[in-house]
Amino acid sequence: MWDVRYCEGMSTKLKPFGVKAYTFAFRHPSEDKPITILEGSIRSGKTYSFHPKIITQLCTYDVAGLKVIIGVSKSTIKDNLLRDLFEIVGEANYNYNLQTGELRLFKSTWIVIGAKDEGSEKYLRGKTIGVALVEEGVLIPESFMMQLLGRLSPVGSRLYINTNPDSPFHYLKVKVIDNEEMSQDVEVIHFDLDDNPNLAKETRAKYERMFKGVFYDRFIRGLWVIAEGAIYRDCLGPQCEYGEDQRPVGLENRGWAHYVIVDYGTVNAFAGLEVWDDGKTLWQDREYYWDSRVERVQKTDEQYADELDEFIGPNKRGLVIIVDPSAASFKLVLVKRGYQVKNGKNDVEEGIRKTASALTMGLYRIRKAVKGQKANKPDYPCITTPKELANYAWDEKKAIKTEEEQPIKKKDHTADCVRMAVHTLLTAYRLER
Fold first, then answer.
1. In angstroms, rounded to a whole number, what is the distance separating the alpha carbons of residues 227 and 83?
2. How many other C-beta atoms can be found within 10 angstroms of the C-beta atom of residue 399?
3. 253 and 150, same structural domain?
4. pTM for the complete prediction?
5. Which domain covers residue 413, as residue numbers?
6. Angle (nearest 5°) at CA 53 between 48 and 56
7. The CATH number of the domain where 318 resides is what?
8. In terms of domains, do 158 and 77 share one?
9. pLDDT in tens, 275-332
10. How many angstroms separate the CA atoms of 90 and 10, rounded?
């Protein structure tokens, strides 16, 4: 435990550290290698060990250049790292401007930088950096990371990265962690759940239940493994379906949040899923599906809007239609018809991870079709969704060739709808509680 007398106003409500976290956190930067990577399981103490490292070591570390904190966005950095840090140091010891990213911490000055895409590397140009902390390293674009490495030029400069593992073909694994030419300058500290003494058995068991397959290997075991095969192979089961005997009585009249999730396509298939949200679970009750290639009839935006009008029926009060942000023309048609339209979150990797957890935990449930029912009118049974989820698979060839993990873009439209529904509607809090 660090000395709570380090500064007046600092919190004394500090949790214990595991051996790995303590050793790293209180070691002077001069004893660190130029690059230190904390990798491994979620909730294993990686980010928590950043707090004392910053407060007791890096704030007073005398090195030329700027001190920066980097993540996907300033908002995520605040949520994942700064919020707890501010609570520890106390209001009198920091001042943070979220818009500019300027941070005063004790008597040291930091800059917080968001690196959401390849174009973000422009924020580093011309800067000389002495200390850099990177939150969730695998989510940082390669061009940004390479630019950052080039900016750490002062003698004694230090780079600290924490991350969960990803594909073994990810640039951070290939070009930094496993790079023989950089081995003298890189230390990798692996964390697993046993390294966090604050993790209750019940909490650990909950996280172990949340993840299956590749996500279990990465987020629980902390391994760099390739995503292969059927994406939801280990997630689908009785917990993510419901029959007529399990369907909540009067589902349509319970006052639950009401959504239709749309995967828009003219040449490709068009899918619409009706979903009810009771505050805990998402209930997919009906589906509309039209594959213009199979049916040999291509519909216009107006015709699809007509189809949705009939699919939705009279129960439109409070309804929100969630659509892929790229479907601009179709969204305009829906708005003109008086619908409330919301852009869906369409990040593939994060959406798939959350969907896998939601299906595993029974937080997304799909109404089973009755034998003999046909697609679409009059009942709109969920016939296509279970099939597409079961066959939704990783594109292994693309992962090896391009280092990018993506599902195979074939027969995936209702699966994409489910992913967008979960990613948009289920917060991390709902998934973890």
1. 33
2. 19
3. no
4. 0.78
5. 238-432
6. 125
7. 3.30.420.280
8. yes
9. 999 999 999 999 999 988 777 778 899 999 999 999 999 888 899 999 998 899 999 9
10. 5
Please report the pLDDT score of residue 403 as a whole number: 67
Quick check: is 290 in a domain? yes
Cα distances (angstroms) measured from residue 362 to each of 231, 356, 409, 421: 16, 10, 26, 14
Give the closest residue to 264 by CA, choosing from 390, 417, 410.
417
Whether residue 280 sits in one domain with residue 135: no
161 and 40 assigned to the same domain: yes
Q: pLDDT tens, 99-118?
A: 889 999 999 999 999 998 77
CA dist list (Å): 14 to 3, 52, 87, 203: 11, 10, 10, 19
Q: Which residues contact 287 (CB under 8 A, 6 or more apart)?
A: 271, 272, 273, 274, 380, 381, 382, 383, 384, 385, 414
407 lies in some domain = yes
- Dump strand ranges (E) for 80-227: 94-96, 102-105, 108-114, 129-135, 158-163, 186-191
317 and 263 in a common domain: yes
For the cut 80, the answer to whether the pLDDT of residue 413 exceeds it is: yes
User: How many independent structural domains does the chain possess?
Assistant: 2
| Domain annotation covers residue 225 | no
Cα separation of 361 and 210, whole Å?
Answer: 6
Q: What is the pLDDT of residues 213-241, one digit of tens each?
A: 899 999 999 999 988 889 998 899 999 99
Which tokens hold the place of 75?
């908002």
Confidence of residue 1 (pLDDT cuts 50, 70, 90): very low
The answer to whether position 213 is within a domain reads no
pLDDT at 251 over 80: yes
pLDDT of residue 14: 61
Half-sphere exposure of 50 (CA within 13 A, CB side): 29
